[in-house]
Every structure is written in C-alpha cells, then in structure tokens.
C-alpha cells in the first residue's frame, strides 16, 4: 500500500482483491499494489460512483485482459528435493512436454564463478579474480556457509523476481513457471541445516532469518509460490547419482549430509513440523513424487509423472 498512498486523494474503507471502495471520486495510477495484483505493473484504476454515493475502484485486472491479468494467470511452482535426486533431469522432462511450462534452473554456475575486481593502486590495471563459492562452502563450511546462504538466497530471489516469458503470458492453457528450488528451501532446508550442524552460528542464523523475512515480506506476492513438487528418494540413491554425476565440488559430500537434508525435506514438506514464518507457505499444496524410479529411459513412467504434474498444475 505504500506506493499508492503517495497518489491517493481518498480514504479506502473496504478492500478485497480487485475491488476497493473509496470515499471521494478520483482516478489514479496505482503502481505495484500487493493487494490488487502481482508484479510491478502500473495499472490504471478507474473510479466509479456506486449507488450509495460512494466510489468503487476497479483494477485493470478485473476489467480487461491486461498485462497484469496475464501475469497473474501464471502459476509459480518450485521443484524441491535432495542433492542429485534428479531435479534438473525432471525439470528438463517437464520443459520438453509442454510449451505452457517454463523451467528456471538453479543458478549453480553463478555460485561457481563469482567475479571480483581488485585495484592495486594508480596506474595498475584492475585485476579480475574468479572464485568458486560452492567449492569454498564445501571445503570450509564453518567459514563460508553464511556467505554462501546470502548469495544463494539473493540469486534465488533474483530468479523468482524475473517476469515470465512472453510465451507464458500469451498462453491460453495453464501457464506455469517452474523454479528449481526457491528462497524457501534456501532457508528451511539448507540454512537451517547448516545452523543445526554448527556451520552457521547463532548470530549469523539470527541475521539471516531477519533479512530473509524482511525480503520475503517486502516482495510479497512477487515471490509467492502456488505449489511445490517434492522429488523424494532414499539418500543412498541420491549418493549413487551424485557420485555418478561427478561434480568436482561435491567430492567430499558424505551420506550423512544427504541423510540430514532428506530429514529436513520430510519435516518441511511431509510431516510439516518445521517452523514456517509465512502464512501462505504453510498452506501450500505439495505433490510428492517417488524420484527413485529410473524414469529417464522409461516412457511409461514419464507419462505417469507428467499426468500427475498436469493434474497438480490444473488444481492450483
Ligand atoms: N530418475 C533418474 N533415473 C536415473 N538417473 C537419474 C534420474 N534422475 C537423475 N538421474 C541422474 O542423477 C544425476 C543427478 O541428477 P540431477 O543433476 O538432475 O540432480 P539435481 O537434483 O538437479 O541435483 P542438484 O541437487 O545438485 O541440483 C545425473 O547424473 C542424472 O543423469
Ligand atoms: N549449503 C548450501 N546451501 C544452499 O542453499 C544450497 N543450494 C544448493 N546447494 C548445493 C547442493 C549441490 O551441491 C549444489 C547444486 O544444487 O549446490 C546448496 N548448498
């Protein structure tokens, strides 16, 4: 409500989604209202007098098929699951079957290539250094976990704030933007786990939670999800796949770490015992799929997965 307040020449006394009653006649530009629409669009709100002499504001969302309408139709879903359970593989499958679904990959390469410029003084050209924060975090978790979580969360936030592609905005079906992990798994899986392992200390954990809550609350609808697909497999299966994939930074990952991450996922998404700080997230529908199945070369299993996902998306 902060942006509109700058323009508003009226007092609002009753407000629902797409419907606001005001006391005086006016016509304003409403920028980025959380309560009326999702995203940072500017919408023209038209004021009309109602029978009782009061005024009623309608956002463009309920008047016509505007850009805000199109954006609001796009469902947002994250794929969650343990390391190497097969999220990217599953995401590629989803991307290949339906033009209405757009997958956004986890920004791992960003974490592996952080560029910094150092200047050694006048006349000396600045030098660019590239560091691999993923590797640093695995090699010295006590030192780097907090830094890693700040960067991973920031990059996930950036990803979740990107507008959907035009193809989804023009879709006549059920457009869905699918994210590989989210700002929520950043906190309720990884950061929490690092805290419980003692790799993030109590001060760092308090600071992380404080800015995480602030960001999620400030961005409101823009970072909300409508559903979660949870790919689950025994940690031993994830270990097998992790080793087969052979990502250099993960060489030292132990089964015990995957066990702990598995328990975090179960507590958050199945048992619902993780303390969650965002009301909408507490109610979010979760589709749990058995990812231990070797679906890659089995079209029948792929078909079953896709049907379940399609039904899930249609119900959101
Ligand atoms: N259903 C499956 N059956 C057999 N192998 C699979 C399956 N899913 C994934 N794999 C293999 O397991 C490895 C890890 O898969 P993938 O990279 O998709 O995992 P991920 O969950 O995205 O990993 P990360 O948590 O690191 O992002 C890859 O080598 C992939 O080919
Ligand atoms: N510590 C930590 N915090 C995160 O938020 C996080 N997100 C992903 N990862 C690790 C898992 C894979 O190795 C690799 C790719 O998913 O990155 C994380 N590690």
Task: Report on the architecture of this protein.
Helices cover 46% and strands 20% of the residues. With 316 residues, the protein is α/β, with parallel strands linked by helices. It has one domain (67-113, 129-315): P-loop containing nucleotide triphosphate hydrolases (Rossmann fold, 3-Layer(aba) Sandwich). The strands form 3 sheets. The chain has a 5-stranded antiparallel beta sheet with strand order 1-2-5-4-3. It has a 5-stranded parallel beta sheet with strand order 7-10-6-11-12, with helices on both faces. It is globular. 2'-deoxy-guanosine (GNG) binds at residues 83, 106, 108, 134, 137, 148-149, 152, 186, 190, 194, 250. One of its GO terms (molecular function) is ATP binding. Residues 77-312 form the Deoxynucleoside kinase domain. Its EC number is 2.7.1.113.
In helices, the fraction of residues equals 40-55%
Q: What is the class in the CATH system?
A: Alpha Beta
Shape: globular
Measured by DSSP, the beta-strand proportion falls in: 15-25%
Helix/strand-derived category reads: alpha/beta
Low-confidence spans: 1-64
Here the CATH topology equals Rossmann fold
Bound molecules: adenosine-5'-triphosphate, 2'-deoxy-guanosine
Instruction: Give the mean pLDDT.
Output: 83
Cα distance, first to last residue? 26 Å
Order of helices and strands: HEEEEEHHEHEHEEHHHEHHEHHHEH
CATH superfamily, by name, is: P-loop containing nucleotide triphosphate hydrolases
Tally of extended strands? Answer: 12
Number of helices, where a helix is a run of at least 4 consecutive DSSP H or I residues: 14
How is the largest sheet built, in terms of strand order? 1-2-5-4-3
Radius of gyration: 23 Å
Could you say what the CATH architecture is? 3-Layer(aba) Sandwich
């Amino acid at each position: 409500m902060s942006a509109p307040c700058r323009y508003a020449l009226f007092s609002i006394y009753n407000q629902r989604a797409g419907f606001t009653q005001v006391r005086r006649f006016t016509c304003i530009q409403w920028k980025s209202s959380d309560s009326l629409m999702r995203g940072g669009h500017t919408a023209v709100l038209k004021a009309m007098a109602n029978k009782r002499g009061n005024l009623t504001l309608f956002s463009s969302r309920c008047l016509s098929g505007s850009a805000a309408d199109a954006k609001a139709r796009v469902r947002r879903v994250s794929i969650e699951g343990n390391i190497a359970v097969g999220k990217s593989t599953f995401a590629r499958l989803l991307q290949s079957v339906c033009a209405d679904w757009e997958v956004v990959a986890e920004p791992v390469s960003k974490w592996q290539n952080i560029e910094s410029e150092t200047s050694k003084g006048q006349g000396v050209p600045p030098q660019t250094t590239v560091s691999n924060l993923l590797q640093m975090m695995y090699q010295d978790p006590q030192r780097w976990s907090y830094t890693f979580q700040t960067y991973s969360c920031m990059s996930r936030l950036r990803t979740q704030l990107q507008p959907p592609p035009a193809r989804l905005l023009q879709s006549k079906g059920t457009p869905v933007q699918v994210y590989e992990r989210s700002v929520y798994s950043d906190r309720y899986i990884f950061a929490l786990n690092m805290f419980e392992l003692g790799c993030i200390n109590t001060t760092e954990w308090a600071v992380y939670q404080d800015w995480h809550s602030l960001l999620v609350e400030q961005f409101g609808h823009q970072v909300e999800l409508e559903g979660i697909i949870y790919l689950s497999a025994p940690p031993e299966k994830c270990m097998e796949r992790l080793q087969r994939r052979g990502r250099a930074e993960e060489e030292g990952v132990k089964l015990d770490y995957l066990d702990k991450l598995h328990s975090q996922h179960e507590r958050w998404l199945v048992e619902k015992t993780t303390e969650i700080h965002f009301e909408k997230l507490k109610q979010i529908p979760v589709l749990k799929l058995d990812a231990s199945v070797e679906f890659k070369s089995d079209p029948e299993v792929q078909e079953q997965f896709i049907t379940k996902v399609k039904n899930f998306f249609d119900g959101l």
